[in-house]
Amino acid sequence: MNDHQSGNEVSAVSLDKLAQRLDDSVLALEESRSFAKIGKLPRVFDLVRRILMRPEGCAVIEARTERLEKAGVFEGTDWAEPAMLLPSLTTAALQSPNADTVVIEALSELRLLAVVREAYLHPSVSAEQAHNYLTQVLAINLGLLFGMTGEAEREQGRLALVSQHVVQHVAQHIGYEHVIDSLIEEIWRILQQRPIQVADVRKMITQIAICSAEPETDLGSAGRGADRLISSLYGPTRGCSEDPGAVVYQQRLEAMDSQTLQNEATGFARSMHDTGLVSPYHACFVRFILENQDNLLSEALGLSSTGRDCLLCYRELVHALITEGVFPETAQGIYGLALLLERGILYQPPLAPALWRQARLNLCPEARERLQIAYGYQPQAGAWLIQGVLNMLGQPLGVGQGNNPTCQSARALSMWAYNDPDYLLQMVAWAARDNEIVMHFEGQPVSSAHSLGGVASEVTFDLDPVSLVVVPHLDRIYGEMGRMCIGREGDPHKWVNPEFHGWSAGRGFAINVDVATGNLDNLEGFIRHFYASYHPHYNGSQPLIHPQPAGVAVTDRAARFIGWHAITILRAALDPEGEMRVYFYNPNNDSGQSWGDDVHVNTQGCGERFGEASLPFEQFTSRLYIFHFDPLEHGEPADVGEAELQRVMERVYRSWGQDRVPAIELQAEPPHTE
Questions:
Q1: How confident is the model at residue 218 (pLDDT cuts 50, 70, 90)?
Q2: Tens digits of per-residue pLDDT, 580-626?
Q3: Neighbours of 541 (CB within 10 A)
Q4: In contact, 277 and 232? CB cutoff 8 Å
Q5: 219, 419, 485, 596: which is deepest, by most CB within 10 A?
Q6: Helices 305-313 and 315-325 sit at what angle, rounded to 10 degrees?
Q7: What digits encode the pLDDT tens for the residues 204-215?
Q8: How confident is the model over 442-470, as a mean pLDDT?
Q9: Strand, coil or helix: 568
Q10: Per-position DSSP letters for 463-503, written without gaps between them
Q11: Model confidence at 37: pLDDT above 90
């Protein structure tokens, strides 16, 4: 036996002893009463840290994550609900000088890896969700994956080994060869939905760019395809292809002739519309040509004849919005501006004066503070809000609710931006200038300043600028409207939705769940009514005129019920393959999901426009539980074929309705669920 072998055996024995001590400490934690658990945790965390200091220790902890979680290591912490975790926050936790923070973050990543490997069937997060989360974690922490250390790791000392070992262990089991490829695929999938908030995507691309630039880092074939994404941010044109920095690029612009400037404008527009991302250099270019050659603005925005005509009609307004709101930091607003002009909504009489007001709006201290906390002090808060307004008006289906239970408020903002943009701008002005929004519920004024509280106990900062300012007010009003319905029979959405979202929301209301019992109620009648209202083959081929609020029962990959969720039905139409689909808006930040039982929500490839999600009509109906309609349009219950009707009902019974079948119905005729 040589010394090397002997050393390995000693290490193995030592690891076994630590693992045994950990098992004993976990047992003591399990047997403790809830108030005494906190006294047992330091011992557990110390042993986990010592085990994770060894590369082979990750496997030891991963095998115990289910037991550790059930013993209470995450109880009362931000890590208690893995479905609510944000990948973007992992970097700060893994680089923390606090050992307990690093350890609990490491435990969380290993817990999710156990879920991915199907060693742990978690009640609140699926293997697919865990895999997507860990893919993003790896992308954001590529420096740890490839062993690149910085000041944060130096401050951590040997504690940095825990973070490195965990990230590398996760990558080993997800597959090194798939990390970059999966990441790039994930980035394109998200960008295809054209979200307004792209901060996380930009972080991912930046990390890929940093790793690609390291001479000792070899991404191999896995790095192919990254160049297009990297160049979209750091070198979309020949003039900035090597990422020279804003000062150098400004000097180059001053020396360019007309043809070169024309080429730059075309290059920026092509990259922006290809990816939905805007380079900071694009903002430098637009501000430069505004002073010197504004005839190139149409080219730089990539406008069609519709957008060019709108630009010519409202030239001064567009110049003011760029001057006040477009800077390298807020460059993403250029994409919103281009799409706003393409929509032609400036021709609506209230829009231009409302945007002039927005360009000169004085923000109240509360709104300014929220924007500064979220985005910083440069440029000033008003510029960030203008960027948010441009993006929301240009990308009404790109609004996301962030890590907040505020899908109703996000849906309202999206509907107004899509259908009633001047009303949206009024809401923004009230919230940002006056720190109060007043709406009406059945003639009674409802003030955000005097409401008791909303659905969310606190609205987080992971939102676009408009949502950041307006959603806290809308959420309180929505909550107050709900309280005004206390004592009424039935679901409060029946009264709240039309009052909250506006006149275009149908006053007719259908629900297939009995509110008192939670059981299914007249499911067949509900399905027939929905077909009669929305399916072109059963409603006289009448397209949907205004987007309508609706509610779905969201299920996980195993078709298990997760919760109720607010969406917007946008249209029902045939896809390129001739299948009838429902196209809808989902405010949950990422519409591409698997809802189990072969129900896979599409975001591209089936006739979707940017920001739309879609499902075949039958599948969508099987997850629907609330919809609105015009009560004055008297439709007959649709003559849906018996086979189609049964397919929809059986999907309900196999998923979220499994435990909601009334006892009488079960006795009469159990649902057929082969």
A1: low
A2: 999 999 998 777 788 889 999 999 999 999 999 999 999 999 999 99
A3: 8
A4: yes
A5: 596
A6: 90
A7: 788 778 777 766
A8: 89
A9: strand
A10: S-HHHHHHHHHHHHHHHHHHHTTTT-SS-THHHHHHHHH-T
A11: no
Q: State the Cα–Cα distance between residues 407 and 461, nearest whole angstrom.
A: 15
> Coil, strand, or helix at residue 602?
strand
Strand segments (E) across 519-650 = 548-555, 561-574, 580-585, 613-616, 624-629
Rounded to whole angstroms, what are the CA distances from 188 to 194, 211, 604? 10, 19, 11
Contacts for 216 with CB less than 8 Å, ≥ 6 apart:
none
pLDDT band at 633 (very low <50, low <70, confident <90, very high): confident
Residue 637 is given by DSSP the state: P
Nearest to 84 by CA among 114, 108, 58, 120: 108
Judged by DSSP in three states, 44 sits in: helix
**DSSP string of 328-342, one letter each residue:** GGGTTHHHHHHHHHH
Q: Which amino acid is at 438?
A: V
Other residues' Cβ atoms within 10 Å of the Cβ of residue 222: 18
Q: What are phi and psi of 225, to 5 degrees?
A: 95, -10
Please, which residues have CB within 8 angstroms of residue 565's CB and are 6 or more apart in sequence?
Answer: 407, 551, 552, 553, 554, 586, 588
Report whether pLDDT(563) > 90: no
Measured distance CA(172)–CA(166) in Å, rounded: 10
The closest alpha carbon to 471, from 422, 424, 503, belongs to 424
Phi/psi of residue 633, nearest 5 degrees: -95, 95
Which one, of 499, 530, 496, 501, lies nearest residue 626 by Cα? 530
Let me know how long the chain is.
674
- The token duo for 164 is 């490195």
Look up residue 243 and give its amino acid.
D
The closest alpha carbon to 315, from 285, 346, 336, belongs to: 346
Is 12 a residue whose pLDDT tops 60?
no
For CA atoms 349, 351, 357, 363, the dihedral sign is positive
Would you say 283 and 314 are in contact if contact means Cβ atoms under 8 Å apart?
Answer: no
Q: Residue 340 and residue 446: Cα distance in Å, rounded?
A: 31
**Displacement of CA 52 from its chain's centroid (Å):** 32
Which residues, at least 6 apart from 276, have a Cβ–Cβ distance to it below 8 Å?
Answer: 191, 194, 198, 335, 610
Token pair belonging to 292: 């010197």
- Asked if residue 463 has pLDDT above 60, the reply is yes
Residue 112, pLDDT > 90, answer yes
Distances (CA, A) of 389 to 300, 301, 394, 416: 20, 17, 8, 12
Q: Is the pLDDT of residue 270 over 70?
A: yes
Q: Which of 129, 136, 128 is nearest to 87 (CA)?
A: 136
Taken in order 566, 571, 574, 577, the sign of the CA dihedral is negative
Q: Nearest 5°: phi and psi at 57?
A: -75, -20
- CA distances to 135, 137, 159, 186, 201 from 87, rounded to whole Å, are 9, 5, 21, 13, 11
pLDDT value at position 151? 46
DSSP 578: S
Cα 62 → chain centroid: 28
Angle at which helix 280-292 crosses helix 315-325, to 10 degrees, equals 130
How many angstroms separate the Cα of 226 from the Cα of each of 196, 245, 258, 643? 22, 21, 31, 48
DSSP string, 424-465: HHHHHHIIIIIS--EEEETTEEEETTS----SSSS--S-S-H
